[in-house]
Write a structure and sequence with these properties.
The protein is of the alpha/beta class and 253 residues long. The chain has a single domain, classed as 2-enoyl-CoA Hydratase, Chain A, domain 1 (Alpha-Beta Complex), CATH 3.90.226. It has eleven helices and nine strands. Helix 2 crosses helix 11. The two termini are 35 Å apart. The model has no long low-confidence stretch (mean pLDDT 93).
């Protein structure tokens, strides 16, 4: 289990909390593995009726740890990109329990795209959603190229995923990937309230209905694989390596 992740079971809900505040909850490979394990081990546990994903310190997550990105972009070993991240995405795709997300503060990159795998999303008025893949010379990931247009329509998805436009909590609610907007500091409490509502419903009926609403897991994982292949190619492109170098130079300046 990662030191940067807290996993607790409470009243039928498994709460997965990202806790790396000094790095704005940026996700490491160990964190991805721990999150995958938390999701996978809940699948056959009848005591866990739903999952909650949240962050600490008024931040959801800044997305991937960019140090990992730069290492992958300059690696010549031919190793597959961020296999732990891909495993986490597979865990989301194959998950059969309702997932509630509590987003307070920034949700960047996979911090946004993981929400398309969730079933109920709460955001605070301080939440900001951003997917700056193209600015880094990359492509969308997490099956977002499949799920986002289906959820919010092509034009909104294009503006966010390709043009990199930031989306506020209220805009996300209007777009359809946030259910409700609440005050800062209240997202986790509201998520627990939604979890109690879900846990009070007949479990089998919830599971069957959720499956009917969602795309088949195999269709989602096929798109994850396609995106991952393209993402890996792009990581080694001159555009991406230059973009990362500029980012780190600005960071040091």
């Amino acid at each position: 289990m990662s030191e940067y992740l807290i996993v607790t079971d409470e009243d039928g809900a498994r709460i997965i909390t990202m806790r790396r505040p000094e790095k704005k909850n940026a996700l490491t490979q160990d964190m991805y593995r721990a999150m995958s394990d938390a999701i996978d081990t809940a699948q056959n546990n009848p005591d866990i009726r739903c999952l909650i994903i949240t962050g600490v310190a008024g931040v959801f997550t800044a997305g991937n740890d960019l140090d990992d990105f730069l290492k992958a972009g300059t690696d010549t070993s031919g190793a597959p990109r961020a296999s732990a991240a891909t495993k986490f995405l597979y865990s989301l795709a194959h998950n059969v329990k309702p997932i509630i997300a509590a987003v307070d503060g920034i949700a960047i990159g996979i911090g946004t795209t993981m929400l398309f795998h969730c079933d109920y999303v709460l955001a605070s008025t301080a939440a900001v959603f951003s997917t700056p893949f193209i600015q880094l010379g990359l492509v969308p990931e997490g099956a977002s190229s499949l799920l986002a247009p289906r959820m919010m329509g092509h034009h909104r998805a294009f503006a966010m995923l390709v043009m990199g436009h930031k989306v506020s909590a209220e805009q996300a609610r209007e777009a359809g990937f946030v259910n409700a907007v609440v005050a800062p500091g209240h997202t986790e409490a509201e998520a627990k309230k939604a979890a109690r509502e879900l846990c009070a419903l007949p479990a089998e009926a919830v599971a069957i209905s959720r499956k009917l609403l969602r795309l088949p897991p195999d269709e989602i994982t096929r798109r994850i694989d396609q995106e991952t292949h393209l993402f890996s190619e792009r990581m080694k492109s001159k555009e991406a390596v230059s973009a990362f170098m500029r980012f780190f130079q600005r960071k040091k300046g």
